[in-house]
Design a protein that fits this description.
Layout lengths: L9 E4 L12 H11 L9 E5 H7 L3 E3 L7 H10 L3 H9 L1 E8 L2 E6 L4 E3 L18 E3 L5 H16 L4 E10 L2 E12 L5 E2 L15 E2 L1 H13 L8 E5 L24
Parallel strand pairs: 2-8
Antiparallel strand pairs: 1-12, 2-12, 3-7, 4-5, 5-6, 8-9, 10-11
Helix pairs in contact: 1-5, 3-4
Length: 261
């Protein structure tokens, strides 16, 4: 698609999303937020949502007081200075510990991506009436499946063809600062392969593959914020690539081609 043919890319935060509780119907909450934001879904629209509200709705909250650390967790906690109960959860959510230092454990998550502390988070969790400071939130059990279920429910209600992206904030090697990236998706491409396509001078691209869903995740993350903004969902219109079935598997680099482990 040449640049002159592109439609505007419009991202809009969804207003009025309440604090999510375990068991909440997230699809209905998103539909209500779309209505409050005066947005009528169209074919080709995309909803980008934080993993946090998905995890909360799916009941992925864990009270550290219920966790008994293993010897491996105790040893790693001693090395990193982290709470051994949290380290136990990190190990349970991971397939491999890649790096560790004081205050940080880099792992390969069970879903196949590399991240800090298995994505386990303390921030923006309501401690409740008993002021429980030991609550942590795990990533969704299967983010692709969560995105698929949300998409199907919303499409059934609205008779449209959309995409759904679940994002999280990750750090990057060699760069300071976190960015939003996709950890689950449904109904849109994760990677757009431009190999063989012409550039402006009809040179055929040889290696170019666009991490389209991660570019979209980063853009949406700018609007969502990272602190007390309270905008966990963004509506997207004008995504410059055709929607299709997609999954996180497209984004995973095979270990045989990973030069940095």
């Amino acid at each position: 698609m040449r640049s002159g043919e592109r439609s505007p890319l419009i991202l809009t935060v969804l207003e009025g999303i309440p604090l999510i509780r375990p068991g909440d119907d997230l699809a209905e909450i998103l539909l209500q937020a779309l209505e409050e934001s005066q947005i009528n879904l169209r074919d080709g629209d995309i909803l980008v949502i934080t993993q946090k509200i998905v995890s909360k709705a799916e009941g992925r909250l864990v009270d550290l007081q219920t966790v008994s650390p293993s010897k491996q967790a105790l040893d790693l906690a001693d090395k990193t200075g982290k709470d051994p109960r949290e380290v136990e959860l990190i190990l349970e959510e991971s397939t491999e510990v890649l790096r560790s230092r004081l205050g940080l454990i880099i792992v390969e998550h069970r879903r196949g991506f590399v991240c800090a502390n298995a994505g386990i988070d303390h921030s923006n969790l309501d401690p409740g009436e008993d002021n429980n400071q030991d609550l942590v939130l795990l990533l969704p059990e299967n983010p692709d499946q969560s995105a698929e279920e949300l998409r199907r429910k919303i499409e059934t209600k609205k008779y449209v063809r959309i995409g759904v992206v679940i994002i999280d904030s990750h750090g990057r090697a060699w760069r300071v600062g976190t960015v939003g990236i996709s950890i689950g998706l449904s109904g849109l491409p994760g990677v757009v392969d431009l190999r063989g396509e012409p550039d402006l001078f009809d040179y055929r691209l040889r290696v170019t593959q666009i991490g389209a869903v991660d570019e979209l995740a980063a853009a949406a993350s700018l609007l969502m914020g990272q602190a007390d903004e309270g905008y966990p969902a963004v509506h997207v219109r004008g995504f410059p690539y055709h929607l299709r079935d997609g999954s996180f598997e497209e984004l995973k680099r095979d270990k045989s081609r990973d030069m940095f482990r």
